[in-house]
Design a protein that fits this description.
With 78 residues, the protein is an all-alpha fold. The protein is 49% helix and 0% strand. It is globular, with a radius of gyration of 13 Å. The protein starts with a helix and ends in a 13-residue tail after the last helix. InterPro entries: QSregVF_b (IPR024530).
Length: 78
C-alpha cells in the first residue's frame, strides 16, 4: 500500500518540537526551539544524542540553519 502524503509530514511533530524542553546540560529546562544556534552546531559536530531527543535536535539544527525558526514560534503553547 502506498504511503499518503500525511504519513511523511505530521504537524504534531512540529508542535511537540516547539514545546519540548532540553533535559540536561547548560540549557537544561529551555525550550528546544529557544536553544542558541551555536549550541546546535556544537551537537552537529560532536554528534546528536541517541533517540528522540537527537532527532529533535537534528531537526531543529536544520530548521535554524535554513532560517525557518519563525515557523515554530506560533506553535509554542503559552
Amino acid at each position: 500500500m502506498a504511503k499518503q502524503e500525511n504519513d511523511f509530514f505530521n504537524p504534531e511533530l512540529l508542535i511537540e518540537l516547539a514545546n519540548s524542553k532540553m533535559p540536561f546540560g547548560k540549557y537544561q529546562g529551555w525550550l528546544l526551539c529557544r536553544l542558541p544556534e551555536p549550541y546546535l552546531v556544537w551537537f552537529h559536530k560532536k554528534g546528536f544524542p541517541p533517540g528522540k531527543l537527537g532527532i529533535q535536535l537534528a531537526t531543529l539544527y536544520e530548521i535554524k540553519l535554513n532560517g525557518l525558526e519563525y515557523l515554530l514560534t506560533p506553535l509554542i503553547k503559552k
